[in-house]
Request: fold
Amino acid sequence: MSELAVPAVRRKEGGSAWRGRLEHLATHVVVILLMAIWLIPTIGLLISSFRPSADVQSSGWWTFFFQPAQATLENYTYVLAQAGIGTGFINSLFISIPATVIPVFVAAFAAYAFAWMSFPGRNILFVVVVGLLVVPLQTTFIPILRLYGQIGIEGQFLAVWLAHTGYGLPFAVYLLRNFMGELPREVFESAAIDGASPVTSFFRLAIPMSVPAIAALVIFQFLFVWNDLLVSLIYIGAANPENDPLTISIASLVGNFGQGWWYLAAASFISMAVPLLVFFTLQRYFVRGIVGGSVKG
Amino acid sequence: MDPRLVTAIIVVIGVPAVLVGYIVGTEQALRLVPERRRATVRPWLWLFPALAFLLVYLVYPTIGTLIQSFENNAGKFVGFNNYSWFLNSSDGIGSLFNNIIWLVLLPAITVGVGLLFAVLVDRVRYETIAKSVIFLPLAISATAASVIWLFMFAYQPPGAAQTGTLNAIISGLGGAPVAFIANSTFKFNTLMLIVVMSWMWTGFGMVIISAALKGISPELLEAARVDGANELEVFRHITFPLLLPTLTVVATVMIITALKAFDIVYVMTNGNFDTQVIANSMYTWMFTNGNFGRGAVLAIVLMIAVIPVMAFNIRRFQAQEAIR
Reply:
């Protein structure tokens, strides 16, 4: 049908072909301008991270293009060894991996129950769980901190793992339940007839068939935790600086160095390395997670 | 053994083993239950970890904070004292006012620019790359984004070499350098912080809007064009109304994000220069000033502000479930 429609359009606009071309040019200009606005800030800092401190203080990053021989790795070696960024990187990994694994498992159990088991109050309970999605984390800090003080895990990795699990669950349950609910019913029914227990069905059928949703969730939760400043600041923060993740190390560098851009730049790019790697290799799943999670809910 | 190695082993092997062990264990435990009751008990065993986490980390502390907001640090009931402090202080009502600016501008910019970009990029061949560029800042931390933009905004007194990108451009054009972070006239610096947040989140809106845009049937647009509508009319009367539900979704997510804004303010100004927002004010009152009652009031205000958005989201969710 659209093939028939095209010539009709052409005929109508035939006289103003130049106008169409002009519009197309305007589109390119706006798109490229926006791309430049989005890229320049990052490029500026990236270049500064490779410049010697004296240069960064005395001239703008764009002058680098006229003297690229000045490039140095000094800033990176300094922050990794001296400014706690190396330790911060390891800590960020120690925090992010379990804080991703635990909520994904726990949410998968719950999502499976919500999707394929029947029990009274199932829909209401699910709405309540999703409703918790918008409780601000800030509302929870004081009582949880008191609780942690009593059981003595403040400043430990465990404190942030469990907190991130609690905070991440409403979204995780929601995303996985929606995906698992769409899986074909016959598969689970025939498995049950063949005598498979729910545990077997879960690990052999539900999980393998839900890989796209799980991948999106893993990326989402991992990036959220890796990039988190607030939760770590509250539950680890000053209580145990040895366990501080990268975001805290960098935030305190901003305070200590103020204008020491060369170090800040290097530290920031070290912290961005992992998210950028995830972004470029798994972008498809990342986008799907965002679109799937938000358009539906 | 190196404590780090122990942690690494716990992280990689211990944690998943415990989780898998739990769910396999439920089936063993169910053997103790009479066979006809197993199907009744089983769902609750599967739900137990999630419900326990939600109760401990979201439900219980919300109630606790509500109680705390009527108490002082010693746990003594003080009525509405903390609330009246909130209404009369720049860290209270003043930060709420700043949050309202965030709440209006952040959705406006992210939805507006996101929509513009999604519509335009649909017509060029380098769509994938262009989208990646806008989307990229969403993957990095707000802390790193703050450093990136502190560098853009860097200010030197007039006469000194301007190494900050924006001030170098302004000086190059013959203007006087601008104190982007410190100048609070007409909330200018708050606006600059919102620019940073928009830089991060526009990609989020763009990706979702773009997905919805691709879902609009091309035949429908073509039919309108055949009937003589120009591109602007097609957009106004067909594309835009069809996108409206999606734009609402993005806007509500952005409203919640604006209310919870913390990292950027904490790193870039720490609430100085009249840029305080509720989330940062709460952090300051809890940890720098050690006043839990006032911190709790700020948290409660944040929650009350979020409730209407929450109600809206749940109602929309239920409407969707009814269609399914």
In short: The CA atoms of residues 229 and 247 of chain A lie 6 Å apart.
